Amino acid sequence: MKKEGICFMQLCFQGNADEIMKGVRILSSQLGYTVSEEGHRVHVESGKDHLQISGKSGEYLISYGEKAEFFRGLATLADKIKKGDKDFDIIEKKQFDTCGVMLDVSRNAVLKPDAVKDILRKIALMGLNMAMLYTEDTYKIDGYPYFGYMRGAYTKEELKEMDSYAGIFGIELIPCIQTLAHLTTTLRWQYADCMKDTNDILLTDEPETYRFIDKMIGTVRECYTTKRIHIGMDEAHMVGLGRYLQLHGYENRYDLLLRHLRKVTEITKKYNMEPMMWNDMFFRLASKTNSYYDPQVDISRDIVDRIPDISMVYWDYYNEDIDTYNAMIEKSKTLGREVIFAGGVWAWQSMGINYKKTFAATVPALKACRQQGIKQVFATVWQNECSEVSMYSALLGLQLFAEYNYHENVDASDLRERFQVCTGFDMDAFLLLQTDDFDRDLCHHNTVDVAKQVLFQDILQGLFDKNLESVDLYSFYQGKQKRLSEIAGQGELEYLFQYQRQLIKVLKIKCNLGIAITKAYREQNREELEKQLGILLNLKEEVHTLKELAMQVWYKNNKPFGSESLDLKLGGVVARIDTAIKRISMYVDHKIDKIEELEEERLMYKGQDVSEKKPLVNAGRYAQISRASV
After folding, report:
1. Distance in angstroms (rounded) separating the CA atoms of residues 268 and 227
2. Which pLDDT belongs to residue 1?
């Protein structure tokens, strides 16, 4: 791991260097150089159709086509000089016109502008040329004080500052908003009653709705340089089935969707913006099972002809075979509009990043995109209901996208080297940020949320104990704990690994605790229960430490708004441990004659079809995990 702020070389930039010099100076401490007339001469050439980094006899060249390519080349050059390489010639040609990232800043956690800028610097060195900020109601709108209220919403000044900063590195910052669904957190307020169809969907055909959307689009047009805008429109499953149904009766939902889409795109045209949207609703409404990936879906020519001029974003984070991606891209093309692909870096499930799933889904997806001639791709970094996973843990996934942008094939050693060159971090260390990379033979579902289940389930109720009792979780976490203790420090992100070590420590203590307590209780072994009380007291202290570290990570990266969700959840774990200690103590001391929760038979979570051979399940929502009662 490189040491931040230590300069080990001097560089002198010559040639067509004006447009890149501001970024060069910003990145100097990160890459470890100073800009000096006395330094190694680096000739800069722009206007090329590829990226070239070469060195010969102590003279160096970076030639590039667009600004973002230059900074990738700069990371490579700095690494070569640091290693003492004098003669080299590296040529890379982009596979996609646009390759970037979408950062979710709406699921409780709103990244601080400085954190966004830090991530922009890091992806600049990867050579990514686009970033989206996914903002549902986390940006301020004049005249709507409850929009983004107590959510850490970005001000206009903050958005303009981040947009300007992205431009320094040739990164196009694109607003990604919602103009139909996914607006629960703002539609809760009374001001929105007149334009609410369901709890999370806007009321179509309502004039106030379009005044509202006009304000949204007008605001982002003022704050972003780009003309492009992502207007959302995904997962509006209940559109037309709430208040709209009461007011107007049932109407064909394709008609509703297309009429609303046309009105929204008219607003984007008013502001001279070029819209894109998630395309899933076109497929879901045509599917008998409301499935996005339904191979039987056939969208009529009448529907296609009524779609306005808009790019269609096909999102897919789930499938793992290239044939499915090819088929879905072909189906997306039948909509008659440009297809943009959005993959996913799995930061939204459980308590840690899921790189096993990220790699399994991303590699075939990007290969299919190249086969199908898709020119624009980006990685989404969604968060979950509480944003337990730091956005920074997704950096390795972004590097994966970058490498498939600049290379036809990428193996693990290539990715490891490039991640070190572009970020200074260790790929193997980042893989240890996973919490649920179980053997799939143990998994009832393709992805599982075991870490969340272990952490948040109640000690006495043990909703997942039946699922977990046949898996050696203790050894699983013990192995992770050992590997985490052996990795080198990760510099500026070491705090993430400090938190991860504590998380794994807590999971190791808690994974079998409820099972052991239940066994001792049913055997009426009060002596063993007394020993378990000592473990519970220790667990309480370790969870408290975990909470402190989790909040430290939060406040370092994010605005404070939303942290209360994490505080309440982890605080709830401590509170329930207290309750367990009290009730078990009363039983041990013969003050009560039974503990009703421990009398209950343990059943498989997710039903009787879950077997002991494949007991690990996907159930990640706190309310599902922490209690059976509502």
Report:
1. 9
2. 42
pTM: 0.96
Beta bridge mates, 225: none
SS3 sequence of 566-609: HHHHHHHHHHHHHHHHHHHHHHHCCCCCCCHHHHCCCCCCCCCC
Note whether 90 and 54 are within 8 A (CB). Answer: yes
* Greatest alpha-carbon span in the chain: 85
In single-letter form, the type of residue at position 552 comes to: Q
Whole-number pLDDT of residue 7: 54
DSSP string for 92-112: E--S-SEEEEEEE--SS--B-
d(CA 41, CA 57): 11
Residues 260, 266: Cα–Cα separation, whole Å: 10
| Residue 413: CB atoms within 10 Å | 9
Residues 6+ apart with CB under 8 A from 508: 473, 474, 477, 478, 481
Mean pLDDT by 10 residues, the chain (630 residues): 57 96 97 94 96 94 98 97 94 97 97 98 98 98 98 98 98 98 98 98 98 98 98 96 97 96 98 98 92 91 96 98 97 97 96 97 98 98 93 98 96 97 97 97 95 98 97 98 96 97 98 98 97 98 98 98 96 98 98 97 94 95 92
Backbone angles phi, psi at 195, to 5 degrees: -130, 30
Q: What is the sign, positive or negative, of the torsion defined by CA atoms of 534, 539, 545, 548? A: negative
What does residue 136 show for φ and ψ, rounded to 5 degrees? -75, -70
Reading across the β-sheet that carries 40-45, which strands appear in turn?
Answer: 34-35, 10-15, 40-45, 59-63, 51-56, 88-92
DSSP assignment of 230-299: E------TTTTSSHHHHHH----HHHHHHHHHHHHHHHHHHTT-EEEEE-HHHHHTT-TT--TT-TT---
Handedness of CA 559, 562, 566, 568 (dihedral sign): positive
- In DSSP terms, 166 is beta-bridged to none
Kindly state the tokens that stand for 249.
Answer: 């009766």
Cα–chain center distance at 223: 24
Return d(Cα 241, Cα 218) in angstroms, integer: 29
Tokens (6 digits) for 116: 């966004």
Q: What is the pLDDT of residues 411-422, one digit of tens each?
A: 999 999 999 999
Long-range contacts of 435-439 (CB under 8 A, 24+ apart): 435/350, 435/351, 435/352, 435/480, 435/503, 435/504, 435/507, 436/349, 436/350, 436/352, 436/354, 437/354, 437/355, 437/356, 438/471, 438/476, 438/616
Residues 6+ apart with CB under 8 A from 589: none
What is the pLDDT, as a whole number, of residue 4? 44
Distance of CA 359 to the CA centre of its chain: 14
Residue identified by tokens 């879906």 is 297
Tokens matching residue 290: 């409301």
Would you say the C-alpha torsion 216, 217, 218, 224 has a positive or negative sign? Answer: positive
Residues 6+ apart with CB under 8 A from 18: none
